[in-house]
Each structure stands twice: as structure tokens, then as C-alpha cells.
Design a protein that fits this description.
- The chain contains 5 helices and no strands.
- With 102 residues, it is mainly α.
- Helix 2 packs parallel to helix 5.
- The protein starts with a helix and ends with a helix.
């Protein structure tokens, strides 16, 4: 299921259950950007993303974006599963990228 459809179904569940708080709608496999971004590019038939030094990226992309791309470790979907009964179509980002971009 595409990311927007996945988030959409989770949003409907949250509204129907009158849920409060923040829910991360992600797959089960946590991965840093340096792992999933090149894989996504390959699945989409694109060139691998260009790597640039952090010192150059900070003034262009801002500190928060650079931190997310270099230090982010992913998020947990446990709360969405537990409180909303939300279920994944693809438990792995690898499987989802391959099947949705095929």
C-alpha cells in the first residue's frame, strides 16, 4: 500500500476511535535514511542520491533535516497497532517499495 493510502487508513481509524495523541504510521523495520533512500531510488529507477558532507548540507537543508537524515533511526508503530488496531500491508519498507514501484 502506498504511504499516503497507509496514512489515510490510519487517519480514518483514529477519527473513528476518537483517538488522541500522536501515532507513527510506519512499517515494522526501522531504518536510517542512508539505507532506505538508495533502495527507494533504485526501485523507482532513479540514480542513487548524491552524498554531500554534513558541513555543506546544514546551510542548505537546515539542522533539523540534516539531523533526521544522518542520525534518525526510525519510529515505532506500536501505539497505532495497539490503540487503533491498525495493520500493515507491507511489514518491510523493502517489500513495500518493490511492490508499489514495480
Amino acid at each position: 500500500m502506498g504511504a499516503s493510502r497507509r496514512r489515510g487508513s490510519a487517519t480514518v481509524l483514529a477519527v473513528e476511535r476518537k483517538a488522541k495523541g500522536v501515532f507513527n504510521i510506519v512499517d515494522d523495520e526501522l531504518a536510517p535514511a542512508h539505507e532506505w533512500l538508495p533502495f527507494l531510488a533504485a526501485c523507482a529507477g532513479a540514480k542513487p542520491p548524491m552524498r554531500i558532507p554534513i558541513w555543506l548540507a546544514r546551510p542548505l537543508a537546515r539542522k533539523t533535516a540534516v539531523t533526521m537524515m544522518t542520525e534518525g533511526r526510525g519510529f515505532s508503530n506500536a501505539k497505532a497497532k495497539r490503540e487503533l488496531g491498525w495493520q500493515l500491508r507491507y511489514p518491510s519498507w523493502r517489500q513495500g517499495f518493490k511492490e508499489e514501484l514495480a
